[in-house]
Input
Amino acid sequence: MRKTRFCRIKRFALLLVIGLAGMLNTQAQIYDPVTWTTEVETVSEHEYMLWIKASIKPGWHLYSQVVPEDGPVATEFSFEESGAYRLVGSVEEEKGHTVHDPVFDMEITYFSGSAAFSQKITSKGNDGFTIEGEVTYMVCDEQRCLPPETKKLSFTIPGENGAVTAVETKENDIDKERVTESADPADVSGKGEHRESQKGLFTIFLIAFLSGFAALLTPCVFPMIPMTVSFFTKQSKTRAAGIKNAVFYGISIVVIYVFLGSLVTAVFGADSLNALSTNVWFNVIFFLLLVVFAASFLGAFEIVLPHSWANKVDSQANKGGIIGILFMALALAIVSFSCTGPIVGTLLVEAASKGGLAPVIGMLGFSLALALPFMLFAMFPGWLNSLPRSGGWLNSVKVVLGFLELALAFKFLSNADLVLQLHWLEREVFIAVWIAIFGMLALYLFGKISLPHDSPLKHISVGRLGLGLLVLSFTVYLVPGLWGAPLKLISGFPPPMHYSESPYGVGYTKSSGSGASHTELPEGAHYGPHDIVAFLDYEKGMAYAGKVDKPVMIDFTGHACVNCRKMEERVWSESEILNILNNEIVLISLYVDDKRELPENEQYVSETTGKEIKTIGNKWSDFQITRYKANAQPYYVLVNHEGRNLNDPAGYTPEVDEYAAWLNEGIKNYTKNKQR
Output
């Protein structure tokens, strides 16, 4: 009864957490995640080094000075000309993180946490002077990108006294009194984490927990449950003492694995782990490592730690007491390594690709699943009678895990291929490999093939038959992917659609899939993503919306906005969304990084920010800040012909159903208001 009540409480708590997470939609806010400071270093009598340092808030990244054409906006420095000094060379930067960005399909270097740039100069006299300069840059996080920003830089060069002056650059911040901000729940929480990163950590925890449960069902761990529980119940003087010891044993297992995750994070660093995950050699090495793990699970050999380690730990475990129990947990980790090692290694690698606390969260989930049965069976020893007997099915669990390890290995090989742009493992080849792997797994589950250490299979159990049918169904599901099907169940695993022999699928062209019903373009419009008719000018778009009597979606976007492209590729491409964007609204896309200059008579100084508005991008960025008190992209606003909001604006919304609900809500409100 207590257990049932406890499960209900846990289920309610989980639903409550998920519900609260769903409510954390990013609201309007002015972001300024980079602080710039300058410093002057004396190199010699007439030589100085100008240091420009960026402090970047967690989760955001700043792009390098060197970015390929058609990529995001590069960081750029300029200095005023003066007869007091001359520049020596160009601005140098420290080594950043280089990754292959699948959205831009190019290698991009960025900085996170901090960045330092230096420019060497030579003075032409002995008097002190000041150098003025500017930095233009762009920053993004996992959900949004900010329009290109320009900040002033100032350096004070000392005179003959040789003093070094450090000057903190004024940020020219937006006047907080003139711009009212709506609090972002993620910032209010003080955690600096966004909803997507929170979901990512929860996903890692869930996958790790399930992996721990899978490890529990291997022949290295499962037989240890009754042995260990019997030891605690027999050696303890009272049942309460036995339960206490078993609980401490479980806690010790959690501590050991969480310590391992913390060690990985501490050694590599939270930020560098994510950068390391896109390194070619990292991916190749872990591809080979996972192939070795898979071969071990499939029965080719066993991976074991040195026996001397187990012997030393066992000798300590025999001492008894709290220390003895701790060493018993360590002994379990060592003895079961041949089964748990490949799973733990894979989890750490996958968690490392997420960076931050992901390895710690992953090990927490894994160890909890591993430890809970030992604690629960110690509390309720009678449950041991319900445990299935050890047998050949335990080896079958290992084989299934081996096939899964092998499938995951090709993800890492695909990452390396994408970075090097070798096109050896294009989308079709990757999917074909997965079809082969899961097809063989289905044959194994149906008893058509056997592997070393397998027991003779006289009949197939209902559970094994069900799992075989599930794997076979998944294999059949993969087949259309060879001809361009999106395969959304495994989104993120295969290479992107454009990295294939037929980027739009066999027999598919860009226009044939758009579903657009327009025979000719309205004046001032163009074909945007998926051939959706879009306006690039606010006034022209609003005028057309009034003519056709449709609501308007203002799309604050950017040519170099990564997350804007993700929304267009992964959400706008859905038939439900595509139909709405083509037929039920008027789309106005305002690019905040459009560098084309405005005519002189249209240039102005913003009353909100005090900045000079010289380009089209400046104009739309100022419009977004002034009207909607926000400066991040993507940012979507549904309005009527008078420009009044039909519902709350939306930011990066990768969930298709959520985005569709937001669109339909605005359209419904438009219809209601029109009928009044």
Summary: The CA atoms of residues 597 and 615 lie 4 Å apart. The first strand starts at residue 34 and ends at 42.
